[in-house]
Amino acid sequence: MKQHISALMDGELFDDEAEELFDRLKANPEAQEEWRMYHLISDALYQPGRLRADISKTMRDRLQAEPTVLAPRRTATHSARWFALSAAASVLAISLVAWLSMEIGSDSMPQMATAQQLATLQTASLHLNTNLPSNNGLNDYLMAHQEFSPSINVQGAASYMRTMARQ
Amino acid sequence: MDDREVDQQLVERAQRGDKHAFELLIIKYQRRLARLISRFVRDGAEVEDVTQEAFIKAYRALPGFRGESAFYTWLYRIGINTAKNYLLAFKRRVPTTTIIDSDEAENFEEASLLREVDTPENELMSKQVVNVVNSSLLQLPDDLRIALSLREIEGLSYEEIADVMNCPIGTVRSRIFRAREVIAENLRPLLGTNSDNRW
Asked: What is the ipTM of this complex?
């Protein structure tokens, strides 16, 4: 375990190894003394001019008197949540735009079609009322001129049958 | 994981209510923080008080630490502010030579330290510890001494040391550990094992 403590203070352990070692350091006072000793050596090498006494034991008592701090985790979960929220907002926005455009399209097109149909019908109706003879006269006219019809024979027969059925 | 990630893991543990994790951070940074504070405060006992106060402030502020900067940068900033507030509270002038950024605080020159006043006992103990560590380092076999020096003094990673020493990373890890153990063995008689040991 000592070798792991040495590697941990150098930042040379994997995450899961470090987590495990933190638990062992918490449970084992001797292991914590090693952590303390290796840092004293490190400080002596790093700051050879002046070394200060250890205050960690005093600080332990002071920390015990402090209310325990608790903070929400802000790691990968945080960014993942933001990513998910952003994606959901984007999808929602696209869906809204698509739905709105479909709604506008489906409302306006029938209106346009209705208006066009109405205009056509009015024109046709006007044309029929003014230029064509009455219904009975029309049938007689068609019967009399059937042989001049450009349609094929079957179509001519069908037209004849429709005319006769109405009568 | 690197050194900063080790700190971040400890911070997250402390943020979940693990005070012991914060104690490990105190052990790690206490002397570097005290060294920084000694640029503002001259008396050794006051340096210790301000250092403790800075750690308590940092602990209370932990819920607001989001890991956007390194923990030590954040801690040093708290240390600088605590020292300045301490001087202002006693209507003392903040030394003009101590306008430093917390990012570079770790690397300031020893020569720029204030002439610190400390107890003779602390001064003696400090010198003895440094002497034992340095003499132990010099007596180490070459491979152990070079590995530990490259790590502690030059700040190289295990991978970089492995390249320099032309050996596997596992060997580097073992050499550094063995070097520390030899020095620790030489230090233990000096430090003693009594519970009131302050070193």
From this structure: 0.86
Chain B, 82-121: which have a CB under 8 Å from a chain A CB?
110, 113, 116
Task: Give residue-wise pLDDT tens across range A70-108.
Answer: 876 655 545 555 666 777 788 788 888 888 877 766 655
- Is A14 touching B (CB cutoff 8 A)? yes
- Write the pLDDT tens digit of every residue in B13-49: 999 999 999 999 999 999 999 999 998 888 888 999 9
Give pTM, 2 decimals: 0.68
- Rounded-to-integer distance, Cα B21 and Cα A150, Å: 100
State CA A109 to chain mean position distance. 29
- Tens digits of residue pLDDT in A8-48: 999 999 988 999 999 998 889 889 999 999 999 999 998 76
Residue type for position B192: G
CB contacts, 8 Å: A7 with chain B: 158, 173, 177
CB pairs below 8 Å between A and B: how many?
184
Nearest CB to B199; choose among A6, A53, A59: A53
Burial class (CB in 10 A: 0-12, 13-18, 19+), B57: middle
From chain A, the residues in CB contact with B50 under 8 A are none
